[in-house]
Task: inverse folding
């Protein structure tokens, strides 16, 4: 659109009729290209590739003759003249030329020179604005003498009008040149001077206008009284950049003008008539405004706000269109097109908002908006880019397609508004909702825009245009990736099809549109369209292609069933009965009850009524779990539901199912009971509600916030998984505990599952009563399939089933993932109960043993403590039992004691072999440790207190649940042991999931009982509570040695010894050989060669002395032999006489003695013990001075 930008005006004065002679050459050769300009030295250099120009003749009648001069001193202009001066400044050519032809010097002096001076005075010195000027001297074709004369005239001209140091303002052009070089030089000189002159005038003009704006901005009063002049200055400033083809700068300035205009648009002094009469307004056509050089004139005719806004928008449009034309690629061009389309959308909406104040005005504005959009979209660049958008896809194309779609949508809206004046209505249209208040008076007006007038000649042409525009908008929104807009427009077309009774075509769209509008939150629209969709389906034949168009074919009855439910569900929407009248809902219910869908139909129950399961469950004494569900129905009729279920699940994947085979839901709040006989214990989340209503299954998936703890009452069957009461370290085992409650069990089947890798139950499963440890017979055992059966189990009895197991493979884990189930028969029917648990099989008790060998026998020291320093244990008793081979004795039977942290208890036993018994590697004794975890002990006590308190208040049914709260408590164990009083270490924090499982009516009172039962509990006598003890059985292997050497220094006793003086001593070594050596030696080597057979064992002895402490005189190294046959008796070696000389004062430890077996290497195992009699003895050494 750069051809719509006015060219740069070059004014010329032609008193000698020269222009006509040069016109053709001027048009061809004066082409201004590659201009470069910058505001100042610091600014970036900007290039102007091409600058069109236009020669405009000026005659003396229109010379400026401005008495204020070219400087245009704004302060010297009164208010009335300001606009006029501004307009005249903007009309001054950028450069002025005077064409001259003169034959001789006399003519020049008498006629030409005075004329030039007068022109300079009137058009340069008294110019209306900054301007550059030049004198063009024309030389026609002539002889040599004539040429010489004209040369003299030109030199005189240059001398008269070119001051020293100034630019040469004289240009000579000839009608004919002697050579091309001379010709080019002459014309290039003209072009160069014109470039410089234009750039000079442009820079000076910007400065002049800027000064004027600064002056008015500084003087607010003068600005407000001359607002139109202020607008003219702003527009003139922006127009300078536009004329110079500096488009980016021009856009910035026009945007600034638009913002200033918006700021002052409510100034009633300048814009009194907001309700513009469009019928009397000129230049509403965009193209007319585009080609308009300026709106501002010296006349007194006021400009309307619309005219100003339209003019500024037209110039913004010109700039962006020019940027698009000059873009290096279509993709970049589309960016500029997208921007002016966006601005067009905003501008159109702004004008509509300002002027659509009456029905008549509304139609005029709509016509104007329709025409404006039509003109823009029909431009070549828009057509090209629109076609390009359909073929290519990138971010820029997507954005411009969105702009096209939005404008076409606006154009369609204006078409509808104009069509309404002729009673052309598109039935049920949803997309066009007027945002502005208008009066209700219908008006009529003539349509002036010919294409729109032709469209409105008939309803059919109007409808066709509506369909065309909607289709175009859908196409562009599809490219732009706006599926919601595509859906909304498709629905508009579907409504038109429905109006025209094209039911099948309309149904294709309506099959998804309720979901679309529902997702937008437009529930009223969504539900309203359902009735139309249902009507379409009711009018369609069962064999219509719509029902079998793809692989997911569906019957007409099935679809109608779902749609009827959608209509019925509108009663639960936030708009309630306002969507459909009650009689419509009732009629739809009747249709729904009569229809029989051919396919399985599922529907969301939450859209029909509110369902809230209560987290507090209850048990009946027949081992039935009860659940109450609140159902709030909005329907003023009974709902009959069949096969209703509530499903709960847990982290183990278990599902707990509650049933109600037949229930009736009335209007309002209903409390509905559900029951379950196959019970799974633990923490559950409500998963799903389902039921049948008519032939449709309705369901609702509950969210994660709905949780419940499933727990049993003390009177009911209770199944638990735990560590066995009696544990033997040689066999791993877990136990299933069964508490039968008030009902006896005729027959039961127990199953065990484990997700722990390598877990394998083995044979040896046992069952017994916990009350008396009496065994009970199992009817059936199948460890391989993890099942077993029992006969009758007594009521109110606790049983323990011990299941031995192994962990196969290389896995070593103490955490078992277990699940157990008991299925049993009672007088009330079949029942089952399932429990899952991550069982920690690690011990709370830690045991270590130290063996001490003496020649008089074996001593065992057992250290028994807690495995976790934070949880002490109570050791009730320890017993290392004698057997037929070994006799065990102890000098002290310890009472019960508490093992804290790193403070274990120690227990000593002497082990002696009975007469005539030989040692075997398989010999062992059983250590029985009876103990209790202190935490479990306190919990058992608290449970008994809690049970008593709950029984007093009638809340004993919550005992099992409240026991879970005890797990989170922390206790002061030191206080408990020393003061025999239970003290809670921290304040009680209730687990909300647990407390919510108590009914609202009982919750506060039950928790109060719980808290009170934990206060001031003294425990003077533990026997009163009948606490459950644990037993740990450890098979302790009897250790053996082949020889025990007893080593002893015999020293004369004295209170002290003197440093440096010898101490006489005897070293005695006695050896005792046990009977295990022969067996061990045989086991070491199954075959011995004859040369290897020996009856002796060889030993070496060495005294290890610290040379800083002792000097030893005597035999410090020697060897001795023992006869292997001399077993079970003491062999005394010869006594060694030694002399010990102390080298230090103080208490000195006796020298160490090392005895080694010399017949084996380090890889062989040889069991030998050395009993150092003097191991911890010291001698007190004093100095000679003290001794004296």
Result:
């Amino acid at each position: 659109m750069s051809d719509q930008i006015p060219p740069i005006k070059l004014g010329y004065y032609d008193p000698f009729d020269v222009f006509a002679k040069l016109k053709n050459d001027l048009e061809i050769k004066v082409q201004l290209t590659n201009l470069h300009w910058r505001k100042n030295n610091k600014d970036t250099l900007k290039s102007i590739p091409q600058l069109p120009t236009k020669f405009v003749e000026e005659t003396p009648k229109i010379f400026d003759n401005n008495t204020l001069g070219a400087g245009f001193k704004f302060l010297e202009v009164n208010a009335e003249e300001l606009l006029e001066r501004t307009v005249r400044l903007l009309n001054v050519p950028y450069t002025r030329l005077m064409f001259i032809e003169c034959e001789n010097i006399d003519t020049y002096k008498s006629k030409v020179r005075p004329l030039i001076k007068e022109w300079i005075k009137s058009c340069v010195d008294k110019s209306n604005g900054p301007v550059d000027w030049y004198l063009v001297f024309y030389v026609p074709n002539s002889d040599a003498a004539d040429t010489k004369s004209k040369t003299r005239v030109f030199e005189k001209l240059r001398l008269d009008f070119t001051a020293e140091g100034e630019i040469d303002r004289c240009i000579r052009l000839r009608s004919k040149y002697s050579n091309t070089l001379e010709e080019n030089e002459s014309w290039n000189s003209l072009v160069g001077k014109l470039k410089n002159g234009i750039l000079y005038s442009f820079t000076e003009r910007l400065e002049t206008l800027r000064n004027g704006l600064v002056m008015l901005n500084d003087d607010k009063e003068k600005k407000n009284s001359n607002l139109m002049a202020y607008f003219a200055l702003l527009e003139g400033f922006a127009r300078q950049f536009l004329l110079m083809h500096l488009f980016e700068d021009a856009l910035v300035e026009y945007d600034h003008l638009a913002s200033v205009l918006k700021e002052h648009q409510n100034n009633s002094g300048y814009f009194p008539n907001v309700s513009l009469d469009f019928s009397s307004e000129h230049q509403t056509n965009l193209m007319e405004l585009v080609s308009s050089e300026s709106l501002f004139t010296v006349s007194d005719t006021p400009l309307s706000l619309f005219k100003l806004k339209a003019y500024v928008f037209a110039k913004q449009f010109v700039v962006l269109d020019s940027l698009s034309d000059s873009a290096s690629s279509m993709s970049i061009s589309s960016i500029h097109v997208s921007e002016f389309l966006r601005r067009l959308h905003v501008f159109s909406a702004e004008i509509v908002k300002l002027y659509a104040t009456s029905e008549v005005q509304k139609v005029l504005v709509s016509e104007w908006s329709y025409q404006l959009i039509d003109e823009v979209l029909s431009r070549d660049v828009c057509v090209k880019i629109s076609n390009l958008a359909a073929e290519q896809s990138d971010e820029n194309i997507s954005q411009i397609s969105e702009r096209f779609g939005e404008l076409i949508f606006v154009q369609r809206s204006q078409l509808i508004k104009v069509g309404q004046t002729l009673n052309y209505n598109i039935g049920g249209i949803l997309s066009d909702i007027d945002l502005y208040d208008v009066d209700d008076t219908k008006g009529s007006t003539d349509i002036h825009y010919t294409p729109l007038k032709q469209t409105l000649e008939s309803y059919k042409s109007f409808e066709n245009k509506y369909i065309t525009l909607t289709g175009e908008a859908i196409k562009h929104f599809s490219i732009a990736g706006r599926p919601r807009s595509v859906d909304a427009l498709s629905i508009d077309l579907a409504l038109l099809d429905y109006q025209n009774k094209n039911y099948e075509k309309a149904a294709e769209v309506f099959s998804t549109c309720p979901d679309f509008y529902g997702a937008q939150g437009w529930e009223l629209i969504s539900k309203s369209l359902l009735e139309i969709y249902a009507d379409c389906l009711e009018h369609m034949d069962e064999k219509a292609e719509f029902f079998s168009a793809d692989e997911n074919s569906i019957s007409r009855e099935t679809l109608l069933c779902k749609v009827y439910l959608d209509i019925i569900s509108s009663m639960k929407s936030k708009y309630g009965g306002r969507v459909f009248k009650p009689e419509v809902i009732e009629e739809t219910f009747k249709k729904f009850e009569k229809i029989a869908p051919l396919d399985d139909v599922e529907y969301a129950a939450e859209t029909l009524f509110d369902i809230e399961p209560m987290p507090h469950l209850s048990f009946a004494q027949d081992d039935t779990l009860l659940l109450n569900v609140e159902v709030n129905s909005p329907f003023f009729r009974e709902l009959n539901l069949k096969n209703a279920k509530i499903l709960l699940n847990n982290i183990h994947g278990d599902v707990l199912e509650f049933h109600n085979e037949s229930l009736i839901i009335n209007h309002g709040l209903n409390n509905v009971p559900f029951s379950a006989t196959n019970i799974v214990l633990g923490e559950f989340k409500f998963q799903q509600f389902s039921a049948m209503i008519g032939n449709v299954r309705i369901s609702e998936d509950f969210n994660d916030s709905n949780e419940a703890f499933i727990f049993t009452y003390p009177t009911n069957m209770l199944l638990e998984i735990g560590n066995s009461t009696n544990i033997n370290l040689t066999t791993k085992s877990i136990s299933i505990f069964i508490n039968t409650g008030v009902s006896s069990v005729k027959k039961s089947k127990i199953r065990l599952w484990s997700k722990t890798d390598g877990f394998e139950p083995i044979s040896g499963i046992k069952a017994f009563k916990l009350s008396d440890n009496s065994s009970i017979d199992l009817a059936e055992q199948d460890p391989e399939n993890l099942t077993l059966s029992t006969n009758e189990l007594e009521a109110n009895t606790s049983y323990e089933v011990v299941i031995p197991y192994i962990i196969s493979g290389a896995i070593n884990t103490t955490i078992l993932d277990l699940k157990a189930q008991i299925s049993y028969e009672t007088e009330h029917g079949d029942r089952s109960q399932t429990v899952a648990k991550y069982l920690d099989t690690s011990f709370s008790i830690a045991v270590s043993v130290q063996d001490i060998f003496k020649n008089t026998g074996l001593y065992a020291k057992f250290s028994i403590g807690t495995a976790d320093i934070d949880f002490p244990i109570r050791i009730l008793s320890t017993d290392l039992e004698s057997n037929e081979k070994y006799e065990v004795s102890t000098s002290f039977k310890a009472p019960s004691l508490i093992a804290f942290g790193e403070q274990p208890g120690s227990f000593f036993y002497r082990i002696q072999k009975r007469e005539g018994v030989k040692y075997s590697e398989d010999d062992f004794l059983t250590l029985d440790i009876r103990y209790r975890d202190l935490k479990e002990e306190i919990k058992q006590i608290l449970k008994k207190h809690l049970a008593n308190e709950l029984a007093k208040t009638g809340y004993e049914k919550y005992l099992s649940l409240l026991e879970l709260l005890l797990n989170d408590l922390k206790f002061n164990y030191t206080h408990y042991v020393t003061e025999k009083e239970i003290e809670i270490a921290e304040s009680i924090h209730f687990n909300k999931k647990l407390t919510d499982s108590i009914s609202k009516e009982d919750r506060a009172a039950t928790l109060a009982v719980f808290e009170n039962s934990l206060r001031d509990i003294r425990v003077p006598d533990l026997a009163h509570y009948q606490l459950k003890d644990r037993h740990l059985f450890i098979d302790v292997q009897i250790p053996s040695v082949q020889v025990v050497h007893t080593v002893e220094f015999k020293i004369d006793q004295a209170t002290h010894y003197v440093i440096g003086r010898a101490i006489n001593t005897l070293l005695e070594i006695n050896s005792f050989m046990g009977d295990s050596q022969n067996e061990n030696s045989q086991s070491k080597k199954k075959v011995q060669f004859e040369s290897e057979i020996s009856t002796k064992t060889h030993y070496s002895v060495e005294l290890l002395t610290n040379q800083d402490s002792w000097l030893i005189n005597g035999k410090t190294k020697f060897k001795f032999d023992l006869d292997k046959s001399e077993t079970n008796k003491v062999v005394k070696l010869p006594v060694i006489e030694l002399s010990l000389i102390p080298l230090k004062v103080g208490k000195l430890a006796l020298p160490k003695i090392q005895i080694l077996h010399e017949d084996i290497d380090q890889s062989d195992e040889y069991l030998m013990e050395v009993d150092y009699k003097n191991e911890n003895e010291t001698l007190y050494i004093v100095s000679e001075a003290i001794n004296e």
